[in-house]
């Protein structure tokens, strides 16, 4: 019999993380744990208020399936039992971990894949004044890929200061729905002038029709507008790429299933994350063969990661041991 438990955990950040919707000083995660005999599987999610989620509600949703899991609910059953979102992600990844532990195999072996190679992740610069963002960029200028949080008045000044501070770094920006139809063209032109190579979610996901027919010199990536497989087709003609995050897809199972349809529809692929621990990043690393951009720097923002966490060497990350996950 498989038993389910769930915890809410708080992880203080090393410094405040700011985006266009606000700031945070700690990461709140929900961990689902499945125990069957001596085998234990775990999965982590980060509920996101933008999608109407909070840690208490997500934990309650997870625990509501406890009796069904004890009665034999499987990972396959889970895909219909819950919609895409944080709760299903934690449970889905816990099932994957438990299955690997029970089989005595690494998760990539069960997927008939090679071990994930070291990945180069983007490193995020949180939204701030041009001067403070330039200081952060200067400290990170040795990193090959910087993801810049924008979405406020003065974004051109910010990107100008960042480019001067990190002249060699590849820059992508994430506006977190912070631009408008009226300033879209102006802001995109400013980003192009300073060598930005990708713009993530410039307009609100429920008001992005202005992107249809807009000739951007920089590829535009959907984040808040992209969730599970069903969300892909409506994005054709609006976006050039999609950001696949397990907390949006509802776990590794749907994320793996999304990749081929996304490619077939012509989208580039970013593998992204919320700010969480290595337990939340590890499953996403299994999408390594499919990515164009990796953005899995969540643990780098924490004062302290989980035990047996992912080994980061600057921006290079290595798949963890089975002591953590998979």
State the gist of this model.
29% of the residues lie in helices and 24% in strands. It is of the alpha/beta class.
What would your notes on this structure say?
- The protein has 2 domains: 108 residues, Enolase-like, N-terminal domain (Enolase-like, domain 1); 200 residues, TIM Barrel (Alpha-Beta Barrel), CATH 3.20.20.120.
- 29% of the residues lie in helices and 24% in strands.
- It is built from 11 helices and 14 strands.
- α1 packs across α4.
Reconstruct the topology from this structure:
Elements: E1 3-19, E2 22-36, E3 39-45, H1 55-63, H2 66-70, H3 75-81, H4 86-103, H5 107-110, E4 119-120, E5 123-125, H6 130-139, E6 145-149, H7 155-165, E7 170-174, H8 184-193, E8 196-200, E9 220-222, E10 241-244, H9 246-249, H10 252-264, E11 268-271, H11 278-281, E12 293-294, E13 311-313, E14 316-318
Parallel strand pairs: 5-6, 6-7, 7-8, 8-9, 9-10, 10-11, 11-12
Antiparallel strand pairs: 1-2, 2-3, 4-14, 13-14
Helix pairs in contact: 1-4, 6-7
Regions with little confidence, pLDDT below 50 for 5+ residues: none
The level 1 CATH classification of the largest domain is Alpha Beta
Distance between the termini: 20 Å
Mean pLDDT: 95
Total domain modules: 2
What are its keywords?
326 residues, alpha/beta, Enolase-like, domain 1, TIM Barrel, 2 domains, eight-stranded parallel β-sheet, three-stranded antiparallel β-sheet, 11 helices
């Amino acid at each position: 019999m498989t038993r389910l438990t769930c915890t809410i955990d708080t992880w203080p950040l090393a410094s405040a993380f700011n985006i266009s919707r606000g700031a945070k000083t700690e990461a709140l995660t929900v961990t689902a744990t499945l125990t069957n005999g001596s085998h234990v599987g775990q999965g982590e999610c980060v509920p996101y208020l933008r999608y109407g989620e909070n840690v208490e509600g997500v934990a309650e949703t997870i625990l509501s399936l406890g009796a069904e899991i004890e009665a034999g609910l499987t990972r396959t059953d889970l895909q219909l039992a819950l919609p895409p979102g944080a709760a299903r992600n934690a449970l889905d990844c816990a099932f994957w971990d438990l299955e690997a532990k029970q089989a005595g195999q690494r998760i990539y072996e069960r997927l008939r894949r090679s071990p994930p190679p070291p990945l180069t992740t983007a490193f995020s610069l949180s939204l701030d004044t041009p001067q403070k963002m330039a200081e952060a960029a200067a400290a990170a200028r040795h990193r090959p890929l910087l993801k810049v949080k924008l979405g406020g008045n003065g974004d051109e000044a910010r990107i100008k200061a960042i480019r001067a501070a990190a002249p060699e770094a590849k820059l992508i920006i994430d506006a977190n729905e912070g631009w408008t139809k009226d300033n879209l063209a102006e802001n995109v032109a400013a980003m192009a002038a300073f060598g930005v190579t990708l713009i993530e979610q410039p307009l609100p996901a429920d008001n992005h029709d202005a992107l249809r027919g807009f000739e951007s010199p920089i590829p535009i990536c959907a984040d808040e507008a992209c969730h599970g497989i069903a969300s892909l087709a409506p994005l054709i003609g609006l976006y050039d790429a999609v950001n696949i995050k397990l907390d949006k897809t509802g776990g590794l199972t749907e994320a793996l299933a999304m990749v081929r349809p996304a490619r077939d529809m012509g989208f580039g692929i970013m593998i992204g994350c919320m700010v969480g621990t290595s337990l939340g990043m590890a499953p996403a690393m299994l999408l390594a063969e499919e990515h164009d951009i990796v953005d899995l720097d969540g643990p780098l923002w924490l004062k302290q990661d989980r035990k047996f966490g992912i080994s980061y060497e600057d921006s290079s990350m290595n798949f963890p041991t089975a002591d953590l996950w998979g």
